[in-house]
């Protein structure tokens, strides 16, 4: 901390010297306008900065204001425990906000801020990347013609110790912030305050979360409903986690195969008859094999007939691009980290965990897992400069705080994760609540077939399935980084919002 403070002083001194040199006269007490604005590495927990902008979305000019700032987290006695940074986009040519949807957006980790979806998916500005999501220079941002700001206002929230958000009270207990249920509880209180401050109680409300953010918003759906008396119209789960839904044993081992198939198809590692099929024509065959044959076979363990075991390995080899030998060596249960290392081992590459379209190079070809996540390294390359440029220069949030792409939130208490059941309860009690899942076929961290499985198990009785939907995209964990999926994903969100807003006067009842 002392080292960082010293460095900040050096930077501040250098900045002052530069300003004086440019003005060609010294700053004096009689000339206060020559001094640079006061900054700090200490967070003010309650601030607001407002800027005005416009963006053209689907050919329509949309004026909006961006409100960046911080809002406190209080304890039961009203003491400020933390300050959460947020960015709120509000369309300015809307007269009646009672019918204007509000989308509240979270990313995951746990430990990451809302940067990912803010400047790469739903927000009005996009970072500079190529059409497949790879970094390009110069770093920076440009207009997002696919943003959902045309039909909804958007709030991006950075949880405690991510982005510019900070836990401030020295006596603040970690267990009040850094765990599945603590995270949900304090964020629900914070959302209540935000909605009250900005007069959004009448608006249709939506939560969107990505990765661990799907755990967060699934739990928030019920917490907002039960503890804040705030009812939602929709929850959007982008690349969802397991949501506390059990899948141990044979199910857990088998469900990754369709993802392996998609990855092998992308890298042209399959037989020509499969490779010649379109991805979405080919995958249902693998999904049916997984459910109807592979799970029962793995369930038999060491008592599976040898001939049947070899037949299973042959089918898995055909669908995964791996050899029958390594599949048998793993007793039909191939770990994903081994798959990322093995698929292109003979070509000298690994494949990415979060997006298996990305290739990496390890120190040596031997081993059971990659040295690093090729895709995440690529993304940080593009996102980190862009968000710092955007917040500081365009949105005018002046601070010497470090914007933490991954913040100190661990250890994270994962006990009692019932968020899938929380979401089911919220849907059951609220006939207006709809859920949409968005998955990338090449996501190996939160794979698409596990997402489908979660959706099936979320509603075991089949009573809610008309309000549950799943969408697939030809990219990875951050499916929106691919230009075609950016357009398709945002359009799917638009359609979801339109369908989940009831007609005027329509009662919420079964």
Automatic annotation (TrEMBL):
Highest taxon above the source species: Bacteria
Q: Keyword Kinase, does the record have it?
A: no
**GO BP terms, alphabetized:** proteolysis
One matching Pfam family: Peptidase_S10
Keyword Cell inner membrane in the entry? The reply is no
The Gene Ontology terms for molecular function here are: serine-type carboxypeptidase activity
Q: Which UniProt keywords apply?
A: Carboxypeptidase, Glycoprotein, Hydrolase, Protease, Signal
May I ask which residue range the UniProt record assigns to the signal sequence?
1-21
Q: Which PANTHER family match?
A: RETINOID-INDUCIBLE SERINE CARBOXYPEPTIDASE, SERINE PROTEASE FAMILY S10 SERINE CARBOXYPEPTIDASE
The protein's name in its UniProt record: Carboxypeptidase C (Cathepsin A)
Q: Which organism's genome codes for this protein?
A: Chitinophaga terrae (ex Kim and Jung 2007)
Specify the taxonomic lineage.
Answer: Bacteria, Pseudomonadati, Bacteroidota, Chitinophagia, Chitinophagales
């Amino acid at each position: 901390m002392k080292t960082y403070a010293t460095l900040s002083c050096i930077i501040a001194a250098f900045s002052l010297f530069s300003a004086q040199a440019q003005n060609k006269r010294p700053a004096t007490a009689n000339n206060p306008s020559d001094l640079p604005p006061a900054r700090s590495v200490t967070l003010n927990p309650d601030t607001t900065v407002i800027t005005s902008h416009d963006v053209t979305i689907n050919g329509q000019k949309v004026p909006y204001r961006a409100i960046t700032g911080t809002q406190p987290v209080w304890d039961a006695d009203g003491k400020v425990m933390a300050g959460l940074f947020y960015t709120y986009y509000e369309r300015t040519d809307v007269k009646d906000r009672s019918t204007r949807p509000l989308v509240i957006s979270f990313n995951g980790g746990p430990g990451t801020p809302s940067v990912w979806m803010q400047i790469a998916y739903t927000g009005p500005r996009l970072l500079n990347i190529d059409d497949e999501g790879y970094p390009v220079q110069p770093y920076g941002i440009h207009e997002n013609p696919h943003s959902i700001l045309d039909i909804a206002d958007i709030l991006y929230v950075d949880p405690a110790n991510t982005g510019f958000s900070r836990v401030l009270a020295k006596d603040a207990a970690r267990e009040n912030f850094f765990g599945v249920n603590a995270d949900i509880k304090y964020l629900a209180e914070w959302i209540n305050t935000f909605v009250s401050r900005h007069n959004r109680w009448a608006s249709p409300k939506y939560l969107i979360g990505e990765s661990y953010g799907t755990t967060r918003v699934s739990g928030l759906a019920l917490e907002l409903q039960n503890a804040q008396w705030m009812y939602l119209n929709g929850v959007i789960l982008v690349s969802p986690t397991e949501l506390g839904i059990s899948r141990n044993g044979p199910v857990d081992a088998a469900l990754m195969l369709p993802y392996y198939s998609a990855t092998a198809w992308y890298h042209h590692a399959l037989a020509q008859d499969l490779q010649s099929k379109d991805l979405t024509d080919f995958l249902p065959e693998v999904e049916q094999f997984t459910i109807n044959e592979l799970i029962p076979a793995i369930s038999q363990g060491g008592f599976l007939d040898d001939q049947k075991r070899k037949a299973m390995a042959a089918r898995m080899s055909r669908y995964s691009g791996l050899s029958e030998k390594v599949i048998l060596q793993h007793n039909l249960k191939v770990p994903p980290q081994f798959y990322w290392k093995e698929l292109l081992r003979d070509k000298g590459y690994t494949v990415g965990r979060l997006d298996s379209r990305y290739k990496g190079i390890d120190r040596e070809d031997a081993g059971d897992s990659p040295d690093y996540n090729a895709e995440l390294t690529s993304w940080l390359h593009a996102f980190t400069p862009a968000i710092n440029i955007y917040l500081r220069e365009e949105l005018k949030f002046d601070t010497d705080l470090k914007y933490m792409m991954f913040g100190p939130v661990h250890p994270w208490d994962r006990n009692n994760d019932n968020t899938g059941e929380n979401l089911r309860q919220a849907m059951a009690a609220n006939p207006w609540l709809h859920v949409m899942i968005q998955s990338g076929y090449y996501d190996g961290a939160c794979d698409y077939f596990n997402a489908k499985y979660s959706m099936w198990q979320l509603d075991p009785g089949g009573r809610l399935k008309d309000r549950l939907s799943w969408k697939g995209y030809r990219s990875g964990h951050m499916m929106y980084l691919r230009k075609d999926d950016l357009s398709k994903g945002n359009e799917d969100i638009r359609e979801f919002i339109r369908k989940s807003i009831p007609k005027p006067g329509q009662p919420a009842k079964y």
